[in-house]
Amino acid sequence: MMVNLQxxxxxxxxxxxxxxxxxxxxxxxxxxxxxxxxxxxxxxxKSFFPIPIFFGVTKKNYNKIHNLNYVKLFYKKxxxxxxxxxxxxxxxxxxxxxQLFGKNYKxxxxxxxxxxxxxxxxxxKYEKLIxxxxxxxxxxxxxxxxxxxxxxxxxxxxLASFHTRNVPHKAHQWAHNFMINKYNHLLIQPLIGQYxxxxxxxxxxxxxxxxxxxxxxxNSAFFAPYFSYPRYGGPVExxxxxxxxxxxxxxxxxxxxxxxxxxxxxxxxxxxxxCLKNQKKLGIVIIAQKEPYFCSGCNKIVNKKCLKEICIKSxxxxxxxTKIRNYIRKSKPIPQYLMDKRVxxxxxxxxILTN
Length: 355
What we know:
The protein is α/β, with parallel strands linked by helices. 36% of the residues lie in helices and 20% in strands. It has helices at residues 9-19, 32-41, 59-65, 93-101, 109-117, 142-153, 170-183, 202-213, 234-247, 270-277, 279-282, 309-312, 321-329, 341-344; strands at 3-6, 43-44, 47-48, 56-57, 70-75, 78-89, 120-129, 160-164, 186-192, 221-223, 226-227, 252-254, 285-287, 293-295, 300-302, 316-318. Strands 8, 9, 10, 11, 12 and 13 form a 6-stranded parallel sheet that branches. The two termini are 38 Å apart.
């Protein structure tokens, strides 16, 4: 008997990333030994790795496959692979949550998602891969990107990288210019896929970031989507993002104030501190700067305290995506100190997901 198992978009993106070396040194969905080792030791074999990439099944799907040796994987009715099941195992949600998110794990959205969607986990090997179906319009492999950038930046040159899950605003532009000026080349790589209500659509994120790239010096900035999904994992997810950028050929990685965060779940700069602490293990240089803001005295974006008398008395304006989305929802013009007009002019209520 053969069963067809429909996978979701998260699993499909994880599958593409694993098959194409995006999560190297992890090459396959984790087995139980690897899962536990990553949770407790942040290691896969002898290499640093911060988050387990697993293949979970619901109770309904578990009941379909638990007595089978072979299963066919499908995504959106497309046949992806024939797999041979090596083992089926369980992980206690509380262990997963506490090891990744700390003592307040029960309040974390990804813990809740993990507990709801994963009754058991499968360790398997591929018997057959249908390569023509293992692709997506928003997926670019590390091999393809490195081939493109190698010609334009040459050998032994720096390539800094910037992760975002947002439409670019003026603080992002400040970070872009900081890296281009210091390292000559920049990869802007927004996380594309599985966003929730009240966040920007994939199409909007891609279009607006490409608009900005055209404003920078020719061949100084490159674009490639990171086809994945937000785990809101704070420090450990920031470390995963650093590994991903190393695999895409980057030499430096920008870690933000609340990188991969969720509301006020993590302390300020905790992602930066964790990545700096593990920088040697990550194998990529971490760029950790203070949060940029708009100084009304200087009339520009800065990230250091202004000492001019006019600046000391002036107002400091935080530059945030939440503030900008509120302007869009109310159909109000976005102030130019918050966002480049070339970006803001294409935004409207349809740019934000409503379901």
